[in-house]
Amino acid sequence: xxxxSTTVFIGDSLTEGGDWQSWFPDLEAVNLGVxxxxxxxxxxxxxxxxxxxxETVVLLIGTNDVANRRAVEQVVRGIETILVTLRHDLxxxxxxxxxxxxxxxxxxxxxxxxxxxxxxxxATVKAxxxxxxxxxxxxxxxxxxxxxxxxxxxxAAGYEAWLSELVPxxxxxxxxxxxxxxxxxxxxGALLREEG
Length: 196
What we know:
Radius of gyration: 17 Å
InterPro entries: Ester_Hydrolysis_Enzymes, SGNH_hydro, SGNH_hydro_sf
Organism: Herbiconiux moechotypicola
Low-confidence stretches: 179-191
CATH superfamily: SGNH hydrolase
Pfam family, one: Lipase_GDSL_2
Helix content: 40-55%
CATH class: Alpha Beta
Protein name: SGNH hydrolase-type esterase domain-containing protein
Domain SGNH hydrolase-type esterase: 9-161
Number of helices: 10
């Protein structure tokens, strides 16, 4: 069992604005969020992630690609490249990729399409996927106005909503064996029958 508990948070300003060490005091939290970053920018600096040899990587990227009017396929390809590179460089790391967050409602269908592709792809590199859309979006796809002042960046309530999903997801991910060894968890009923 490894003693490492380093968790690297990577992404754009949404990640950069997080107080990860305070929010996850039991981890060695490393914040590699960079304001304004795109999938292309993150690909260029992925070697920084590998230098920390983290046990877990938490990824949130793509919203700036959306703002730059990149095609869905281009954004998806960028996120897939990041995930493939992380898996190659860190074969035993646990990877948690999060859905691109909602923005203004005019971007809703575009972002949903990106998230559908990333969700489908994540398992192919043994990454876990966290869908933040239900907790962050209004019915029309707008980022919940209670969580933002500019339809993009999060305020304290926005980070609190994000953490309400991220904390249990990260606990689940870190409770699993290294993802280089895929497993299927038995259903609770099967476990109870074995114990009985």
